[in-house]
Specification:
single chain, alpha/beta, Rossmann fold, Dihydrodipicolinate Reductase, domain 2, 10 helices, globular
């Protein structure tokens, strides 16, 4: 049975990743590591596992890690775990630089590790089925408008320093790209502008000549969640509704790593390599917006 450790103690770690690890029948949830032992103990006690303040000690007792940490922290610790031979369930984005993402891909490939990046919607069965079908059709463009309102006082992410610093581009952008790249394909040109109200506007040209646009904000007055594909038959919205919770979806991500570890199974579409490609688009968009 694969032994998992959880790195992180925040809301997402406690409410989604920890819950999914604790109830998954095919793994052993060993323990929680956190930058604060007090917070690690609180999450670990909730799920009846050990709390660790020394990462190497936890890594020595497990086969895989699930990481729920800011991307700049995740990049370094995921590389450390990979170098210790641990399989990876990563949060998005995998890092804040292409260089950090490339190092992680190299280590995963070198050690033949299983990896998956948890783009939440991609692990809901109806969304995965929709994208698989959409990838077989002809499209001209796509549009994603993702507006959230997370900085309301008292909200679980209101004090998220990395989200305030990097905004919707880096937090919501990975979700948008995870739904557009599998359908329209790789990107060869990126333009971006920072708009009023903290909105990031991104224009992508894909290698097959199609285009897509992203509008992203974490500080909008009204929540909007729209992804639409345009083709010969007109506009087709992404399937609505999710058959389960984020905890269910994370359980499906765990299944991927358990199923692929030590096998020659095909890489999952959301593996660390795809995570790296997402970072490359985001970094190019950030550079364009900063010009």
């Amino acid at each position: 049975m694969m032994r998992f450790g959880l790195l992180g103690t925040g809301h997402w770690a406690a409410e989604t990743q920890g819950a999914a690890l604790a109830r998954h029948p095919g793994i052993e949830f060993v323990g929680v590591w956190g930058r604060s032992l007090t917070r690690a103990t609180a999450v670990a006690t909730r799920y009846g596992v050990g709390a660790y303040d020394d990462l190497d000690t936890l890594l020595a007792e497990i086969d895989a890690v699930a990481i729920a940490l800011p991307p700049d922290v995740q990049g370094d610790l995921a590389l450390r775990a990979a170098r210790a031979g641990k399989h990876l369930v990563l949060d998005k984005p995998v890092a804040l630089t292409v260089e950090a993402a490339d190092l992680l891909v190299t280590e995963v490939d070198r050690r033949d590790l299983a990896s998956v990046v948890f783009f939440t919607n991609r692990f809901h069965a109806n969304v995965a089925d929709f994208l698989a079908h959409a990838a077989t059709r002809t499209w001209a463009s796509a549009r994603a408008t993702l507006y959230a309102s997370i900085f309301t006082p008292g909200g679980p992410y209101a004090d998220s320093a990395w989200r305030r610093a990097h905004g919707g581009l880096w937090d919501l952008g990975p979700h948008a790209l995870s739904l557009i790249l599998p359908v329209l394909g790789p990107v060869d040109r990126v333009e971006a502008l920072a708009g009023a109200g903290g909105i990031s506007h991104v224009l992508l040209r894909h290698t097959n000549g199609t285009t897509s646009t992203l509008s992203l904000s974490l500080d909008a007055p009204t929540v909007v969640n729209e992804v639409v594909y345009y083709g010969p038959d007109g506009a087709v919205p992404l399937v609505e509704g999710r058959p389960g919770t984020s905890v269910d979806a994370f359980g499906a991500a765990i299944d991927v790593v358990v199923g692929q570890a030590g096998t020659v199974a095909p890489r999952h579409p959301c593996d660390v390599r795809f995570g790296r490609d997402v970072v490359a688009v985001l970094a190019a968009a950030q550079a364009a917006a900063d010009r």
